[in-house]
Amino acid sequence: MPFFNSFKKSTGYTLIEILITITILSLVGIISIPNLRNYSKNQDLKNSASSLKDALSNAQSASISGIKCSTKPSVQWSIKLNPTTILGTQQGYQVRLFCLDPLVDTVSTPEPKAIFVFPSSITMSTTCSPTTRNIDIIFTGRTPSFDCNDGNKPTTFSITLTNASINKSVSININSQGVITN
Does residue 34 sit in helix, strand or coil? Predict the structure, then answer.
């Protein structure tokens, strides 16, 4: 058996084994990168919808609770959906939560209690058309009212957020009793 003893066990990897491993890892990377990008865009959409629903729920809860704006409890809280523009081109939407203080002149603009902006990849469509103007959602207690600022005051309201690059959308609906669903 001296023939079998002449072969030493190799402790390293051959060039072929290394090239196969690199090829497999490259293929896995090429396949997973687009999926990670889509995952990130999908998360942006979900986070935007969740933030909007939270703002609506917070306005409604604050209105029901009569949380104070200044010195007296306010029974009206408002969400304003404002398109944001840069050099005349719409870039996204800003959501602002306001307390409508009964002691403050209603003509003046109150300071927002919370503000967030959707990523520019998210588009919004609503019951109001077009969505290039400010939209007000006002909660008095649990009951909502909607103002499209064009004379249209619907009794129910729907907001759809869309990310066209992944062809997905999320809708948030508010009925006349103030139930918020998505």
Answer: helix
- CA atoms of 115 and 81, how far apart (whole Å): 10
Task: Specify the amino acid at residue 132.
Answer: T
Length reported for the chain:
182
User: Per the structure block, which two tokens stand in for 118?
Assistant: 């959707």
CB neighbour class for 119 (10 Å; exposed up to 12, middle 13-18, buried from 19): middle
pTM listed for this prediction? 0.74
Residue 157 identity: F
Range of the domain at 125: 14-181
- Quote the number of domains for the chain: 1
93-115 tens-digit pLDDT: 778 777 776 555 444 455 667 77
CATH number at residue 45: 3.55.40
Of the chain, the end-to-end C-alpha distance in Å amounts to 77
The tokens for 29 are 């990377």
CA 122 to CA 41: how far, in whole Å?
9
Q: Which of 122, 114, 97 is nearest to 47 (CA)?
A: 122
Residue 7 covered by a domain: no
Tokens standing for residue 77:
């809280």
